[in-house]
Amino acid sequence: MRATHALLFVSVVVVAGVRPAAAADKMDLATIRTAVSFYTDSVKTLEGRYHDRSTYQPKKRSPSTVYFEDERRVIDFAADVPNGRWSTDTSKSFSIERLSPDRFESRDVSMFDGQESYQLSYTLAKAPFIEFGPPPGVPDQLTISSGAEGESSSTPLHFAGLRLRHSQGGMLASALQSGKGRLEGLEEIDGHDCYRIEVEFGSLKLIVWLDPQHDFLPRRQEYRGGGKEHDWKMLAFLFETLEFKQFADAAHGNQRWFPQHVKTTFSTDMKHEIELIELQINPPLKITHFQVDAATLPDGVKLVNYKTPQKATFTGGRRDLWEARQKLVDAHDERCHEVLGESAKSDDPIRANPLTSGGWLAWLVGLGSLAVLTLGIRLLMRNRRATSPAGQ
């Protein structure tokens, strides 16, 4: 199961210094809408790689909470924008102080072909005491679900406004064309004059600062909550584009601007810094690019399909290989929580990040018990396995 991030609200002060649009270039909202729509309509597909490094710096660390340290991701991604298809292949590394100086390395693949989603999990590629565990970095389970599952809400599509981060989804262009947008004027962001536009979605407000020097792409995006009665002073999420870069457009033979270096903020404690390393705009992508073919997987991979939810199958019919692998996973788990059990007796905190590690950490924070810690590390070592059918 992929990690999830809770949506946190933090009070902020509204940025001042907006200059009326008429006082500058006299560009009206209709012209800006046209420019944003032109860019969106001309981007059909994307394929590339980006790095994501997260930092969690709470004002006060609790001895009963576990914290991940120095969490890094390398993500290969692709998107078919008009058809809503996407894929991510994520390699993640992190450390848990007091368990071992060695880092964990994991991999998971998520895809959506427009109708079905695919979640492919792997055994840990690297971990402390890996000699106790299964073969590293091999496919373990493929789960096929109806509808989109496992989509990240912080991808290059979101940075460019090709997808919005809120319950209604959609694109910035469609939100502006809906008539909900309101042009507030020009405002300087990091030395660049940008058009500030506000769009309301019920109890949520999106504020974007569009940079006319970079194809009217967002230089800053704020998602605010609290509603009108609280003057939208609650910051739910923030994207800040630190740098734009030109990338090749395969369909049109030219160079196009795209956000290349982005900082995201989930709360005052949780931040991500994301750098786009490679990008192709409008490469040819077939639907098979967004699907996992079980026939290409090695024997012994567990298959869970929403069409037959009560019965799991195994590639090559080799359930025995999967069961043998799980025994090794259990042996590795045992060794890890033996070490954590010893370190939990000291006064120093054991660390793992509660915003990125799943629900078991919430129990740990509330109870502060070694029993819950033991359960938590076992769940972690199992590499976020997808939920299996009963009895399988």
Can you describe this structure?
With 392 residues, the chain is an alpha+beta fold. It is 18% helix and 36% strand. It has helices at 29-42, 156-159, 172-177, 319-343, 360-367, 370-381, and strands at 10-11, 45-56, 69-80, 85-95, 104-112, 116-122, 139-146, 181-189, 192-201, 204-211, 217-225, 234-249, 254-265, 270-281, 302-305, 313-314. It has a 16-stranded mixed beta sheet that branches. Helix 5 (360-367) runs antiparallel to helix 6 (370-381). The longest helix is centred in the last third of the chain and has 25 residues, at 319-343. The two termini are 17 Å apart. Mean pLDDT is 79; it is low at 1-18, 20-24 and 346-392.
Furnish the topology, listing elements before pairings.
Blueprint: E1 10-11, H1 29-42, E2 45-56, E3 69-80, E4 85-95, E5 104-112, E6 116-122, E7 139-146, H2 156-159, H3 172-177, E8 181-189, E9 192-201, E10 204-211, E11 217-225, E12 234-249, E13 254-265, E14 270-281, E15 302-305, E16 313-314, H4 319-343, H5 360-367, H6 370-381
Parallel strand pairs: 7-15
Antiparallel strand pairs: 1-12, 2-3, 2-14, 3-4, 4-5, 5-6, 6-7, 8-9, 9-10, 10-11, 11-12, 12-13, 13-14, 15-16
Helix pairs in contact: 4-6, 5-6
Instruction: Give the count of helical stretches.
Output: 6
Work out the count of structural domains.
1
Strand count: 16
Q: Which parts are unreliable, with pLDDT below 50 for 5 consecutive residues or more?
A: 1-18, 20-24, 346-392
| Class per helix and strand makeup | alpha+beta
List the helices and strands in order: EHEEEEEEHHEEEEEEEEEHHH
For the sheet with most strands, the description reads:
16 strands, mixed
Radius of gyration: 23 Å
In one word, what is the shape?
globular
Mean residue pLDDT? 79
Share of helix, binned? 10-25%
